[in-house]
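Problem: given the chain below (295 residues), write out its structure.
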Amino acid sequence: MPAVLRATWATRPYGAVIAREPFGNLERVADGIWALISTPLTGDRTTLSNGGIIVGKDAVLAIEGFNDPKGAQWLANKAHELTGRWPTHVVLTHYHSDHANGIAGYLTDGRHPELRSTARTRDLVVERNKPADDARSSAMAGVTLLSPTEPTTMDLGGRSVRIIPRIGHTESDVSIELDDPSIVFCGDLFWNAMFPNFVDAIPTKLATSVRALRRTRDTIYIPGHGAIGTPAEYDRYVAMLDDVEQAARRAHAAGTSAADAGAQFTLPASLGDWTMFSKQFYQRAFEAWYRELSS
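Solution.
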């Protein structure tokens, strides 16, 4: 990503910046709601993924475990500074290491928030994320399981939050949603101006989930990566996914390998600027589509 775009991303907040670190900015999204927007392209991957804080009269919900326990500790400390309380609950949107490996950072000798995830997320955080970590494994062993099929409603005290099971970026995703104000923490079902990682994606399910997240009223979308998104930016993401699908279907029908199709692929200029964590991400997208199309 060009340096000028990295700088723009890091300094383009949606709301008031409450705290700024080399790894990200904590932005006030609404009363009692903050989003941690990570800026890992500057080189600091303490958090790597986005996350957030949602506060009610009785409870404080933290979203994501981040790449390193220091990231979770930092967000928990900020919650305490802002509200006078350590997080009482933590939700993981999925099992990928950049969202989950630091989960033990929320647990201290005197503080043990209730951790929540699906069973599949719990299992794969331990089985797949490397290097192995006893503190992370111990933390995940105590997780309260979310339903893989039905929404879970959390009453934080005067504020209701719905945790909705999804599928597409992985086999077990969740979104965290509020109705008043209309805010959706999307996890990696939405990447804003960043090309997503399809490594474990089920592309047709991803397309369905992404469309299901789109609301008809004005909504703030917190992506898994990238700046806070507006409805227009969310629609641009949907259009990008559609363009990838069309290209993958054409290449598969023509017998082009996923590697060659990924190497040849470019997004149209009409979709604007996009960046990637890895040059392999185009190929991964085609590989994911080929898995589905071949079956």
